[in-house]
Amino acid sequence: MPPNLTGYYRFVSQENMDNYLRALDINVVLRKLVCLLKPDKEIIHTGDHMVIRTITSLRDYVMDFDLGVQFEEDLGPVDGRKCQTTVSWEGDQLVCEQLGEKRNRGWRHWLEGDQLHLVRRGPGQLAKSQSQWAG
Predict the structure, then answer these.
(1) What is the pLDDT of residues 32-70, one digit of tens each?
(2) pLDDT tens for each residue of 90-114
(3) Are 9 and 41 in contact (CB under 8 A)?
(4) What CA–CA distance (Å, rounded) separates 131 from 54?
(5) Any bridge partners for residue 70, and if so which?
(6) 3-class SS of residue 124
(7) What is the side-by-side strand order in the sheet with 125-133?
(8) Could you tell me the pLDDT band of residue 29, with boundaries at 50, 70 and 90?
(9) Dihedral of CA 121/116/87/31: which sign?
(10) What is the pTM (predicted TM-score) of this model?
(11) Cα separation of 117 and 134, whole Å?
């Protein structure tokens, strides 16, 4: 049975974010700004429904979805694109596939102890981040 990810997670670290954003053709100003942010995550996980809020000092980003059901994700605040997104479990990892203008795009979340790991995948690049469970 997959874990329940409900909780608040404080940002700890990230790696390779600039190269990942460059692979998505994000302009240099937005890339530099994103790399300075230290986003927290709030996850509400109820059965097959999840809400993931990415919280920053500039703007929050909310994903509200049912597991295994494709939906249109508006990435306007991130990169101005829309894509067809499906989030599902692969073992103990929450896996997101984003189909759209950029190929091979998505992410994985998983827990190791009280650390929430996130690996973002873009064309030829991975960006990794960690957050600490805070309640």
Answers:
(1) 999 999 999 999 999 999 999 999 998 899 999 999 999
(2) 999 999 999 988 888 999 999 999 9
(3) yes
(4) 11
(5) none
(6) coil
(7) 61-66, 49-55, 40-46, 7-15, 125-133, 115-122, 105-112, 93-99, 81-90, 71-75
(8) very high
(9) negative
(10) 0.93
(11) 14
CA angle 31, 105, 71 (to 5 degrees): 110
The dihedral of CA 105, 79, 93, 69: what is its sign?
A: negative
The 3-state DSSP class for residue 76 equals helix
- Report d(CA 23, CA 61) in Å as an integer: 21
Which residue has 């091979």 as its token pair?
A: 104
**Could you give the CA distance from residue 21 to residue 120 in angstroms, rounded to a whole number?**
10
Question: Residue holding tokens 């991130």?
Answer: 78
Residues in the chain: 135
